[in-house]
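Box 3.1. Reading complex inputs
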Amino acid sequence: MRLALLMMAALMAACGSSEEVADVAPSERAKAPLRVYTVSYPLAYFAERIGGAAVDVTFPAPAEIDPASWRPGAETIEAYQKADLILLNGANYAKWVERVSLPASTLVDTSESFQDDYIIIEDAVVHSHGPEGEHSHGQTAVTTWLDPRQAVTQARAIQGALLAARPEQGTDFEEGLAALEKDLEALDARMEEALGSDAPFVASHPVYQYLARRYGLDLHAVDFDGDAWHDLEHLLEDHPAKVMLWKLDPPADTASRLRDMGLEIVIFDPCANRPAAGDYLSVMEENMARLQSALSR
Amino acid sequence: MKQTLYLAWRYLAFHRLKTFILLTSITLILYLPVGLRVLVNQSSQQLTRRADATPLVVGSKGSPLELVLNTLYFRSDFPEPMRYSEAQKVRDSGLARIVPMYVRYHSRGHPIVGTSVDYFDRRELAVQTGRLFTFVGECVLGARVAEALGVHVGDAVISSPENLFDLAGEYPLKMTIVGILAQADSPDDDAIFVDIKTTWIIEGIGHGHQDVADGEAAGAVLSRDGNRVVANASIVKYNEITEDNLDEFHFHGDLSDYPITAVVAFPPDQKSSALLQGRYENADERAQIARPSEVMAELLDTILTIESFVLAGAVIVGIATLASASLVFMLSLRLRRREMETLFKIGGSRANVGALMASEMVFVLVTGIVLAAGLTFLTSQFGAALVRALIRM
């Protein structure tokens, strides 16, 4: 066996050619800003806040699309491949990531440290076929950043990745993280104060699980991407909510019918995509203000 | 002198067969050790170069040589796989950038190399036509594979099942060619590159099939109990990943548990390299770390030992051949006694006759040396290509 390997090696060596691959020394790294690509807007916002001028952050999803269900084209994936860092949300967010080819060294799962705290969606379809046995698809809640404390953890993961890539700019990154943490903690404190309520809520989409867990909201969701009226009526029998959270303004006829059912519509934008105006913090502040206003009525 | 050389030349030309045999013997006996030395030197340089470009390789415990040959040359037996979490561990250590490798499957005799797009940067491989893979199910071909299979960008290659009789085993996967690499004169020319997740799909641990909630799959559903759906094996599994069914492909369980054969680690400096190697010193560690340059140096030492045996053999054969050649000359002198007497009788001096005989010997020796030198030069220029051609036969 060993002799065979030896002979094979000698023959294969003769097939070789000149190729010199040298690792890029830190001192030779480009002085240009780090190219950072993200799979959601909150991650882009955190990276911009932490990295400042040292990073060039790109979140390439079109404005009108929900990034969770978006699938980038080949050219966009090639751009991701060329990035210095690719920030992933984890929790199975942006499922396209598992079907594309991204460099293993540049991937950063920002929620990996709290993956044991992911919320499992109990009603996911489980199926089995053949020898692999039973399995299910997409069973975790994905909008981790709606819990500001989790958002802080994700921001720290981003800072760690930036620091590893550019240790010489560590002080700047630490300052950026400290400022962001301060803002997120302040947001968390205000939301805790504003959302402290035992009132039941309903949501039009199952995206507020982490928000509900963090602030103890009695919130149940239906899925208005399908025919949810029956589910909603059934839900309201045992869960007499007066407020319904929507990601965006519902269609006029839907809004009218909901109002007829005694539900007040409150837009709570998860801010997965880049807002037309403002930023992650301002959108969350607006969400909080709208919800607080509805609760006070 | 001119006449002496002319007579020597005429004699050798007249006894063509004898001259040919003598020339061949002398040429080969001079060429064999020198040519072998040149070939081994070339091989050593090639081995060292590719190994030096691959700082560290992490794999399951076992033969480091097998691990390195599989990872660098896509040859040798399929080494014991390890979990992908090992790659994540190296990456998370912050001590090296990583390129995971899964070299197990083949397509029409060419290795399918599951890796990450970083591989092409690390090996400085350029795309001749098309682009690198972006989605699972896409592949990039080495230059010689494309040439051998006569395929182009937009065509497809199909993975070969490992065992034709394993009906429940992995399905062949049809992979779309999205790029062809420029010739690199390396083992990369003979490989088919895919994303590592594509190799997991070939293995069957990632797959795409009809949505069990879809009406079209109703015939395959055996039972539904709330959110629990049991389907039989007739549910349509896709053996090609297309734009339309891409979203149906998925992976079960934790990717950390998925198999890989190696992780190529690129530490930024010597300190990181030493620290990373230190982490695998523990005897309880189920993985090993190999430094390809050291593994190949050890291999070369062994090859050089073998070479020295071959050289010793060649020298002994050479001495025997020269002795035989001398004997042939001496016998030839005896047989030519009457010819020499005739030369004396027609006025040739002893010196002239001696010079004639010596000219013949010198002519054969010099021609043999020139031919051996020519063959050695050809070996140095085309040896690698020749071996490559022999391997492909």
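In summary: The radius of gyration of chain A is 23 Å.
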